[in-house]
Amino acid sequence: MDKDFKEQLEALRNGEIDQFEVTSETFPDFYKAWSDFSFQSSIKGFAQKGGKIIYRRKEKVE
Q1: In 3D, which of 5, 24, 25, 8 has the Cα closest to residue 16?
Q2: Is the residue at 35 inside a domain?
Q3: Count of structural domains within the chain
Q4: How far is it, in rounded angstroms, from Cα 60 to Cα 2?
Q5: Which residue range is the domain that position 43 belongs to?
Q6: How far apart (Å, rounded) are the C-alpha atoms in residues 47 and 27?
């Protein structure tokens, strides 16, 4: 596994990064981390052409 998606999900949730990209090749590794991630509702994926997904933190509505 090239990327540590668990760390990237936590960094995204904490505001340390703005977004990260998942490709169709890395999706199985991402999904393992995603299925264990307790804060799924705080992250949103945006599908792109070519099988890419950009994950970003959801904006809080006040």
Answers
A1: 8
A2: yes
A3: 1
A4: 31
A5: 5-57
A6: 12
> Does residue 62 lie within any of the structural domains?
no
Distance, in Å, from the CA atom of 31 to the CA atom of 46, rounded to the nearest integer, reads: 15
- In one letter, which amino acid is 23? T
Q: Is 58 exposed, middle or buried (0-12, 13-18, 19+ CB in 10 A)?
A: exposed
Q: Which two tokens stand for residue 18?
A: 């703005």
Residue whose entry in the numeric block shows the structure tokens 């997904």:
53
SS3 state of residue 43: strand
Between the alpha carbon of residue 34 and those of residues 5, 40, 55, the distances in Å are 8, 7, 11
pLDDT tens-digit profile of 3-61?
699 999 999 999 999 999 999 999 999 999 999 999 999 999 999 999 999 999 987 65
